[in-house]
Specification:
Length: 195
């Protein structure tokens, strides 16, 4: 087995666990729908996470295509990002629906700080990994800082927006950032080939 195949295996497991967390929580909410007071925020955050899974999957494929040798130093930031992502996926939706029911808006409000700080941390660590990979690929170092800034700035802005959701309680702000995130992720996926 090549080192990259080990990486893909672990990435697949962690992404699969994240999707399983989301699907399992959604299944429990749908089964107990009569005891669930629905709201749009937590499900929208879950949809964004599913779209991020697609982004991660294609991103790992790109690592294979560029032929970069995977080292522990390159792998640890990726592993850290995936663990943060899994924790965010586990926090996106309520795990159980008690007999008295669950209010999805209350759940989202109570967990927003935890969820969005995990997500922001994931974005920062994942993009630092991307920046490290890009830096290792650069042969012309004369424009290194400018090229890395151009590569990392959009994601760092996204991390700041996500972190803002941990502290700003206004529903309109959550709507704006979640809508932006979902639209941006959807538009980035529309032109990607499956293979």
């Amino acid at each position: 087995m090549q080192p990259f195949e080990y990486v893909v295996g672990l990435v697949s497991i962690l992404l699969g666990l994240a999707l399983t967390e989301l699907a399992s929580s959604l299944h429990k909410l749908l089964r107990a729908r009569a005891r669930v007071r629905w709201d749009w925020q937590a499900p929208a955050a879950a949809v964004a996470l599913v779209l991020v899974v697609l982004d991660l999957w294609w991103g790992v494929r790109q690592l294979e295509l560029i032929g970069l040798t995977m080292t522990i130093g390159l792998f640890l930031p990726l592993l850290t990002a995936l663990l943060l992502f899994y924790l965010a996926a586990a926090a996106a939706l309520p795990d159980d629906v008690p007999v008295e029911g669950v209010d999805v808006r209350e759940y989202y409000t109570a967990n927003a700080r935890y969820f969005w700080l995990l997500f922001a941390g994931f974005v920062v660590v994942a993009k630092l990994h991307v920046g490290l990979v890009a830096y290792l690929q650069m042969t012309d170092t004369s424009q290194t800082a400018a090229r890395l800034a151009k590569l990392l700035t959009p994601s760092l802005i996204l991390a700041l927006l996500a972190a803002s959701l941990a502290f700003v309680r206004q529903t309109w702000w959550h709507f704006a950032v979640l809508s932006f995130l979902i639209v941006a992720l959807l538009s980035s996926h529309m032109s990607r080939p499956l293979l």
